Amino acid sequence: MTSGQFQLDLAEVAKVTAPLGHATMADEKNVEFEQSVHSTFGDESATRGPNGEEYPTPEEVATLRRVRGSVPWSAYTVAFVELCERFSYYGTTVVFVNFIQNPLPEGSTTGKSGTDGQSGALGMGQRASTGLTTFNSMWAYFCPLIGAFVADQYLGRYNTIQISIFIAIVGHIILIVATLPSVIAHPHGAIAAFSVGLIIFGVGVGGFKPNVSPLIAEQYEIAHPRQTIKVQKNGERTIVDPALTVSRIFMYFYLMINVGALIGQIGMVYAEKYVGFWLSFTLPTIMFCFCPTIMFLMRNRYVRRPPTGSVLGKALKLWGLAMKGRWSINPVRT
Prior knowledge:
mainly alpha; 3-stranded mixed β-sheet; 13 helices
């Protein structure tokens, strides 16, 4: 006899032997127990979803083969947007060192060097190039904290991404201005414009990067929150597992990231070498302009969650409360 049967038998005994005044209490407890059993293991009414989809039983979950579901087209468009963004980011940043560190090649006004030369523009040396490229890396990793907070707390992911794209485009345009031949001729003015563009560009990247990954996952997860049954052509009953589908979506997503980054870096190195830095900054900007266009055209087809509040502020408050009176600038007291 199982424990569930034993408890049901006890409930029946209590119903028969209890005084009349306590019969209702026994009935209520019996009903509560049965409801808990149904909520745990499911019943006939819980094996179908609102759209007629069939949910697997506990036995089927343990025995049936799992397969992935179909990837919605909206997820593919988000992945392509990420390809464009990574093309623009890596295509732009890959030429930073040569642009800052090396001087203009002899006879060049754009920084191009040809096959046997070394591309360059401002000629400010290794220390300046290392400092600015290191700052760019730090800035690109810090700004996503702000971008994620704004999306979760106020604007939502889609709106934050769109606003961030336009901010990044402004940064791209300023970087292009810094690479024009007439501006390169004045290195101090060029480096000032470059630094301003770098900061604005990083803010845009910070709003885009932490929100595009959750956005692509939401295109499937919200519409398919549970495992469902799918009968294959050969009659085999299988389980469509959302976890497998989301895993496949992210495989495509990171494929797009790598394709965009690879083509952007290789292509822009050739652009700076044979044409000039203005082209190696302009092409990523043109590619990046596909992002807001696609996002706008797909705005009514994307699954968009409203902001639900960020855990970052709560975590910082909790950390401050835990550390209150327990740390000091003086390392000895701490």
